Amino acid sequence: MLRRKKQHDHSPSCISCCHKATKWYKERLFIIGTAVTILFILSYFITELNPFYNSFKFYIILMWIPITMGFLVGGIIEYFIPKEYIEKYLSRHNIKTIIYAILFGFLMTACCHGILAIAIELYRKGASTSAIVAFLLASPWANLPITILLFGFFGTKALLIIGSSLLIAFTTGVTFLQLEKRGLVECDKCKNGEDTPVHTDFSIKDDIKRRIKNYKLSKSNLSAALKGTLAGSWSLAKMIMWWILIGMTIAALADAFVPSHIFITYMGPTLMGLFITLILAAIIEVCSEGSSPLAFEIYNKTGALGNSFTFLMAGVATDYTEIGLIWHNIGKKAALWIPILTIPQILILSYIFNIFL
Question: How do residues 51-60 score in pLDDT, each as one tens digit?
Answer without folding.
Answer: 999 999 988 8
